[in-house]
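Cross-posting from the modeling subforum.

Setting up a comparison between two proteins and wanted a second pair of eyes on the formatting. Protein 1 (sequence, then structure tokens):
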Amino acid sequence: MRVDILSKEFPPAIYGGAGVHVAELSRVLAPLVDLNVRCFGEPREPDFHGAHVTAYPVPAELDAANAAVQTLGVDLTMIQDIEGADLVHSHTWYANMGGHLSSLMYDIPHVLSAHSLEPLRPWKAEQLGGGYRISSFAEKTSYEAAAAIIAVSEGMRQDILRSYPNVDPGRVRTVHNGIDVSQWHQDRDTDVLEEYGIDPARPSVVFVGRVTRQKGVPYLLRAALQLPPEVQLVL
């Protein structure tokens, strides 16, 4: 079985959780299926734990275009290479339209994983201008047509059904992010904490992620004002 994964992010160019998710998923899937990863940007090493990796830059003709238009340009350049796949699996709106159009072109199932939702990120209109309407259209169209949608949490599943009421709930499944216990395990050494001035003897509230409105950091900071003085906040 051949599966083509479409993603904006892929090692070494990772800036968020979706990129980590795709990298780990690819590492696990590669021994099980004929796996192709198609990502955005500069050329990558062609082999990633057995997965074949191809990167697609923004078409030169779109260098000065809105970022959303550039994204669609990359999606379109991927489509001809997806011919022959049995299933296409896209991640985030950046790649969703590539998956959707490939599904139409080659009559194959399109599965998408939800990591975030455009209707819940209205501040992107400040970044993309009219491009936010394009990204919203691309995501909505893809979600409503997908053969299956994977939500990384039950909360995300509810957000999907609330944001896109035309989506059949039976097509939305919750699959929590896994942890490879051979790589992630408890480390009792405190040298890194001490290097950053974190007292390992005090209880801590820790935030790990991008400092952006989407992550709700202001809510955490407001809550931190109510913490007892012995608790340290680590961002």
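Protein 2 (same layout):
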Amino acid sequence: MAGSSGSVALAEKLQGLNGLFAIHKKKGPTSADVLNLLKTKLLKEAGVKQHPMKRKKQVLKLGHGGTLDSAASGVLVVGIGKGTKMLSGMLSCSKKYTTVGELGKATDTFDAIGMVTEEQSYDHVTKDDLESTLKKFTGHIMQTPPLYSALKQNGQRLSCLVKKGEAVEAKPARPVVVHSLSVQDYNPPFFTLHVECGGGFYVRSLVNDLGKDLSSCAHVKELIRTKQGPFALDEHALQEEKWTIDEIVKAIESCTQLVPSEVVCKKLKTNLLSQTLNK
């Protein structure tokens, strides 16, 4: 009986969770895969039987605040319960990335998991050349999204259509903002960049475009999202071993204390505080 009452209490606690928190996504799975794993773990801990992919009559509602590539790792902001309604605000918040690019090779996906489509010499590229070229990619710029992306055509993701061999139209260039962009290391053919950008920006497209502007080509070798809005990787992102109900309760409570510096994220804090007051 004691075990049964404990399971009921955990299930009630789980179903009562509402808010935002961050988890550490590992390299490999898609963002959707990670959410399904998180949901499976939480339902199992609470003793609730439900297929994590089943959408009708969801016992547990989860969502994320912006896709992180399967080949990338780092901060993935998660909304649970009513917190899923706040995720749209995370899409426009600024994000920070550390990326390692490789000169001399271009791929169809603009990252290391794709097929090599072009090879060019890079011996002529100096660190000064790289730093100088970065200036044209800083500030308010126009950027063409990659074909392998979560953007949709006729209701389906471009990446899925491309993999099926179907005809895909490239999305037109769109305005994006890059707050800061700097070279942290240069050891040809590899270079490391720190990027702070707004919503809708693709680091893969940046690296691909950089390669072209340097009269060579390039792709992303490694990509880590170190911050999204107020959520920093080292401070707030829960490692997989902490994907438990109690740890998420603590994370949601901590989230209400975070004060986003970005003006676009002020609505996020307002919603969280309002939710706390109405409990």
